[in-house]
C-alpha cells in the first residue's frame, strides 16, 4: 500500500494529466451463471471470469485486498477467493442461503444474513467458527455495520424492520419499522445515520443512530416511470458524507442524493435492474451492477455521468472493488 | 418449523420487548443484561384471532397430479401466521388461526356465527360465492372483515360487492385478460374456444370472450363439451380419449390457439397434444393463468417457496398465496398500527397509501371501488412460469394492473 501510494505520488508529481494508470480490480458476482467477473478499472475490460459456487450474490473483500468473500447462496456457503491467484482457497460456514453480509471494520468478523432461517450468523474469519446466531425478522437481507463496529443493522424483508444488533452481546437492541421489503442498510461514514432502502415501499428511510428513529424518508420520482417500477436496493455514501447513490432496480437508474439535505439531485441512467453499487477506493468512480443488461456501469462521481458499461456474466448481482 | 415458534417465543418476546423503541442509552443497559433476567415477560401478549372458513370435499381431477392438496389455502395462511408471529415477537403480538371446515354446499350462517362468538374479527373465506353472500351482511353488522381467498367469481366484486369483503384471489376476468394479453403480444390473435357445460366453465368462457373483445383477439368458433357423467379415470380411458379428442376438435376452423374453459375438470386436461390440428392450448389447460405459480422464483419468490415447502411439504399453489397475502395484510396492518385495535387495522388497510409485498415484483394495492387486490397474473404450463401479465405495452392511466379485469369505469359495484 505504502509503496503504491508513493508511486502514485510520483506519478502525480510528474504532472501526468492523463488519467493515472491506477488499476483497481472490480469483482462482480454473476447470480445466474455461477461466475465472478474480474474487471480492470483502468482498461475497463474483463480480465478473468472465475467459476464459483451456485447463485453467487453478496460479495466483499478483506481490508488488505487479499481475499474476496462471496456468498454462494444455493451452496449454503461463503467462498474465499485468493485475489492473487483468483482461486477458491477456502469456504466459511455461512448457515443456509447466505445472501448478503458485512465485514467488521477490524476485518475479523463476518455478519451474514440467512434468508431462509430468519437468522444473522456471526463468523470468525480466522478460525472459521460460528460465534453466534441472532434470531431476526422474516427474510433477513440487508447488512450494515457502524464505522466503530459496535452495532450492526440487519433488515428483514417481510417483517419490514431494521434490527440494530449489539456486536458485543449479539443481541437486538432496537427494532425500527421501515417501508416494505427493506433490502440494504448503509451507515453514514460518521456513524450518525443508517440509510435503509425499501424495495417495494420505494423509499429510503434515514434512521438516526442516536435516537434509533426514522427522521426522514427519501422518495423518488422519475418522469414517465410508474412509482411501482422504482425499487431502491443498493446504497453507497461518499466518505465525506455529502453524497449518496441509490440503485433503483427496474427503474434502470441510480439516484444521486444530497446526503445532507436528502434531496435527489440526479438520476443516472445505467442499465436494466440496477442492484448493487461500489466505489473505487479513490471515490472517483462508482460502479453499478445491471442485472438484466448483464453489464456494469462506471459512473464518474465528479460529474455523475456514466462513463462506460462493461459486459460481465449473466445477471450481475454484487460488486466490490480492491482496496489497493 | 411449526414447533420452533412456541419454543423460542418466550425468549424472543422478552428480549425484544425490552428493546423495542429503547434509545441507545437504554440499549446499552439492556444489551449486557444476562438472558435469564431479560427472559422475564414484562408485557402481556396481544392476541389477534383470524378465522378461516373453508368449504371442502375431496375432489377428483383428470390428472392425479391436479388433485387439490388437503390443506390447500390453509397452509398458506399458516405460513403467513408464522411470518406474522416472528414479526409479532418484536412487538408483543400473537396471531392465531381458527379453521372451520364445511361441505361445499353447506349452510355457513350458523358456523360463521359461532366463529364470531369465539372472537374472530377477521375471516379468510374459501367458500362459494353463494355461501359468502349468505354471511357477508351478518359479518358487516358484527364489524367482521372478510378476505375472499378462494372465489374467482366476478359477481362478488361487481353486482354483489360488499364494502366489508376484500378479495386477494384474482377474478376470472383478471385471469382471462392476463392470458389474452400474452396471446396478443405473441401475435396469436385467432382463437377457437371449447368450454364445459357447468356454470363455472361458462363463466370462464365468458371472461375469455370479454378478453378477446378488449385486446383484439378473435374467437373464430366455439364448442361446448357436454359433461355426460363419465368416470374421470378408467384403466382404458386413455385409448378412447386419444381417439375422441381429435374428432371433437376436427370441425373447428383454423385458429392460432385453442382456448379451453373447463374449471370442472371434465375434459380440459385431455385437450393438449390430442387436437385435430397441431395448435397450442391455453385456458384451464396448457398455458394456464393463475394468481401464483409453484415454480415462481422471481422477485424473492424462492424465499416464500422455500418457507412454504418446509412448512407444508409441498409446493405453494395459487390459493395458498391468496390466503398468505390476506393473512399478511392483517399482519402488516397490526405491525404498522402497533396494536390489535380492529378500527385502526381496518383504517390502515383502507388508507390510500396501503400496499402489500407478495413476491410479484411490485407493490399490490386494493381497487378501492370494490376492494379487489390488484396483482400480476402468472402464466405457466404446469412446470414453469412462461410469463407474467400485464404484458409490455398494455398501458393504463392509473395502474397497468388495472388492464387486468373489470376496471373502474365499467364496474357494477356500488357500495350501499
What are the salient characteristics of this protein?
heterodimer; A: 324 residues; mainly beta; Methylamine Dehydrogenase, Chain H; four-stranded antiparallel β-sheet; 1 helix; 28 strands; 4% helix; globular; B: 416 residues; alpha/beta; Rossmann fold; 2 domains; 12 helices; 37% helix; disordered N terminus; YVTN family beta-propeller repeat protein (chain A)
CA-based shape of chain B: globular
What would you call the quaternary organization? heterodimer
> Total helix count of chain A?
1
**Percentage of β-strand residues of chain A:** over 45%
Rg on CA atoms of chain A, Å: 18 Å
Strand count, sense and barrel status of the largest sheet of chain B are: 5 strands, parallel
CATH level-3 fold name of the largest domain in chain B: Rossmann fold
From N to C, what is the helix and strand string of chain B? HHHEHEHEHEEHEHEHEEEHHHEEEE
Structural class of chain B: alpha/beta
Number of domains of chain B: 2
| Tally of DSSP β-strands of chain A | 28
At the first level of CATH, what is the class of the largest domain in chain B? Alpha Beta
Helix and strand pattern of chain A: HEEEEEEEEEEEEEEEEEEEEEEEEEEEE
Termini distance of chain A?
6 Å
Q: The biggest beta sheet of chain A, please?
A: 4 strands, antiparallel
Q: What's the CATH H-level homologous superfamily of chain A?
A: YVTN repeat-like/Quinoprotein amine dehydrogenase
**What class would the helix/strand composition of chain A place it in?**
mainly beta
User: Helix share of residues of chain B?
Assistant: 25-40%
How would you characterize this protein structure?
- The termini of chain A are close together.
- Helices cover 4% and strands 52% of the residues of chain A.
- Chain A has one helix at 2-13, and strands spanning 25-30, 35-40, 45-51, 56-61, 67-72, 77-82, 87-92, 98-103, 109-114, 119-124, 129-135, 140-145, 151-156, 161-166, 171-177, 182-187, 193-198, 203-208, 213-219, 235-237, 243-247, 253-258, 264-269, 274-279, 285-290, 295-300, 305-311, 316-321.
- Chain A contains one helix and 28 strands.
- In chain A, the strands form seven sheets. Chain A has a four-stranded antiparallel beta sheet, with no helix packed on it.
- By secondary structure, chain B is an alpha/beta fold.
- Chain B has helices at 4-19, 24-30, 35-38, 74-91, 109-117, 129-141, 172-185, 199-215, 237-249, 301-312, 318-337, 342-350, and strands spanning 46-55, 93-102, 122-126, 145-148, 165-167, 190-196, 218-225, 257-261, 281-283, 288-290, 366-367, 372-373, 377-380, 385-389.
- In chain B, helix 6 (129-141) links the parallel strand 3 (122-126) and strand 4 (145-148).
- In chain B, helix 11 (318-337) crosses helix 12 (342-350).
- The radius of gyration of chain B is 23 Å and the shape is globular.
- At the A-B interface, strand 14 and strand 15 of A face helix 1, helix 2, helix 4, helix 10 and helix 11 of B.
Amino acid at each position: 500500500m505504502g509503496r503504491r501510494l508513493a508511486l502514485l505520488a510520483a506519478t502525480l508529481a510528474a504532472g501526468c494529466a492523463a488519467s493515472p494508470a491506477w488499476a483497481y480490480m472490480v469483482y462482480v458476482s454473476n447470480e445466474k451463471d455461477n461466475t465472478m467477473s474480474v474487471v480492470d478499472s483502468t482498461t475497463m475490460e474483463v480480465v478473468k471470469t472465475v467459476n464459483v459456487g451456485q447463485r453467487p450474490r453478496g460479495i466483499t473483500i478483506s481490508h488488505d485486498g487479499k481475499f474476496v468473500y462471496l456468498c454462494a447462496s444455493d451452496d449454503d456457503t461463503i467462498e474465499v477467493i485468493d485475489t492473487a491467484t483468483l482461486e477458491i482457497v477456502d469456504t466459511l460456514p455461512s448457515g443456509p442461503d447466505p445472501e448478503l453480509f458485512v465485514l467488521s471494520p477490524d476485518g475479523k468478523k463476518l455478519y451474514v444474513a440467512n434468508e431462509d432461517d430468519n437468522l444473522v450468523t456471526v463468523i470468525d474469519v480466522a478460525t472459521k467458527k460460528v460465534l453466534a446466531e441472532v434470531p431476526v425478522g422474516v427474510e433477513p437481507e440487508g447488512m450494515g455495520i457502524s464505522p466503530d463496529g459496535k452495532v450492526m443493522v440487519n433488515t428483514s424483508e417481510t417483517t419490514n424492520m431494521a434490527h440494530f444488533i449489539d456486536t458485543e452481546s449479539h443481541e437486538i437492541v432496537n427494532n425500527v419499522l421501515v417501508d416494505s421489503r427493506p433490502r440494504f442498510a448503509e451507515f453514514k461514514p460518521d456513524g450518525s445515520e443508517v440509510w435503509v432502502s425499501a424495495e417495494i415501499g420505494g423509499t429510503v428511510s434515514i434512521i438516526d443512530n442516536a435516537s434509533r428513529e426514522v427522521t426522514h424518508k427519501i422518495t423518488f420520482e422519475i418522469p414517465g416511470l410508474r412509482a411501482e417500477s422504482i425499487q431502491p436496493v443498493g446504497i453507497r455514501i461518499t466518505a465525506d458524507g455529502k453524497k449518496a447513490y441509490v440503485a433503483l432496480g427496474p427503474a434502470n437508474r441510480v439516484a444521486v442524493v444530497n446526503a445532507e439535505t436528502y434531496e435527489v439531485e440526479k438520476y443516472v441512467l445505467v442499465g436494466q435492474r440496477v442492484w448493487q453499487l461500489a466505489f473505487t477506493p479513490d471515490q472517483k468512480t462508482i460502479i453499478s451492477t445491471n442485472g438484466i443488461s448483464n453489464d456494469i456501469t462506471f459512473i464518474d462521481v465528479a460529474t455523475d455521468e456514466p462513463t462506460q458499461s462493461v459486459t460481465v456474466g449473466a445477471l450481475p448481482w454484487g460488486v466490490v472493488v480492491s482496496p489497493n | 418449523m411449526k414447533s420452533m415458534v412456541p419454543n423460542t417465543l418466550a425468549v424472543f418476546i422478552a428480549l425484544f420487548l425490552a428493546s423495542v423503541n429503547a434509545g441507545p442509552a437504554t440499549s446499552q443497559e439492556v444489551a449486557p443484561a444476562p438472558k435469564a433476567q431479560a427472559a422475564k415477560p414484562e408485557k402481556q401478549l396481544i392476541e389477534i384471532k383470524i378465522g378461516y372458513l373453508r368449504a371442502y370435499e375431496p375432489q377428483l381431477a383428470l390428472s392425479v397430479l391436479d388433485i387439490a392438496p388437503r390443506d390447500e389455502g390453509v397452509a398458506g395462511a399458516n405460513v403467513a401466521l408464522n411470518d406474522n408471529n416472528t414479526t409479532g415477537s418484536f412487538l408483543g403480538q400473537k396471531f392465531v388461526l381458527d379453521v372451520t371446515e364445511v361441505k361445499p354446499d353447506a349452510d355457513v350462517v350458523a358456523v360463521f356465527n359461532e366463529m364470531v362468538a369465539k372472537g374472530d374479527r377477521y375471516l379468510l373465506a374459501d367458500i362459494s360465492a353463494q355461501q359468502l353472500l349468505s354471511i357477508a351482511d351478518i359479518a358487516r353488522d358484527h364489524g367482521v372483515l372478510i378476505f375472499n381467498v378462494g372465489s374467482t367469481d366476478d359477481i362478488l366484486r361487481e353486482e354483489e360487492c360488499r364494502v366489508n369483503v376484500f378479495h386477494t384471489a384474482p377474478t376470472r376476468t383478471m385471469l382471462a385478460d392476463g392470458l389474452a394479453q400474452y396471446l396478443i403480444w405473441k401475435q396469436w390473435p385467432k382463437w377457437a374456444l371449447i368450454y364445459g357445460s357447468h356454470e363455472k366453465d361458462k363463466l370462464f368462457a365468458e371472461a375469455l370472450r370479454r378478453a378477446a373483445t378488449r385486446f383484439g383477439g378473435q374467437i373464430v368458433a366455439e364448442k361446448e363439451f357436454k359433461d355426460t357423467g363419465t368416470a374421470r379415470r378408467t384403466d382404458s380411458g386413455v385409448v378412447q380419449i386419444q381417439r375422441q379428442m381429435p374428432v371433437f376438435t376436427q370441425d373447428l376452423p383454423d385458429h392460432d390457439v385453442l382456448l379451453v374453459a373447463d374449471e370442472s375438470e371434465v375434459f380440459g386436461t385431455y385437450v393438449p397434444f390430442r387436437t385435430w390440428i397441431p395448435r397450442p392450448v391455453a385456458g384451464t389447460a396448457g398455458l394456464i393463468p393463475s394468481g401464483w405459480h409453484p415454480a415462481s422464483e422471481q422477485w424473492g419468490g424462492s424465499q416464500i417457496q422455500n418457507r412454504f415447502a418446509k412448512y407444508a411439504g409441498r409446493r405453494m399453489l395459487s390459493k395458498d398465496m391468496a390466503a398468505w397475502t390476506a393473512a399478511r395484510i392483517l399482519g402488516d396492518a397490526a405491525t404498522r398500527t402497533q396494536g390489535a385495535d380492529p378500527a385502526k387495522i381496518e383504517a390502515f388497510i383502507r388508507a390510500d397509501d396501503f400496499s402489500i409485498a407478495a413476491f410479484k415484483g411490485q407493490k399490490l394495492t386494493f381497487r378501492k371501488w370494490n376492494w379487489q387486490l390488484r396483482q400480476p397474473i402468472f402464466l405457466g404450463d404446469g412446470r414453469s412460469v412462461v410469463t407474467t401479465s400485464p404484458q409490455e405495452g398494455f398501458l393504463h392511466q392509473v395502474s397497468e394492473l388495472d388492464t387486468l379485469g373489470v376496471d373502474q369505469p365499467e364496474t357494477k359495484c356500488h357500495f350501499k
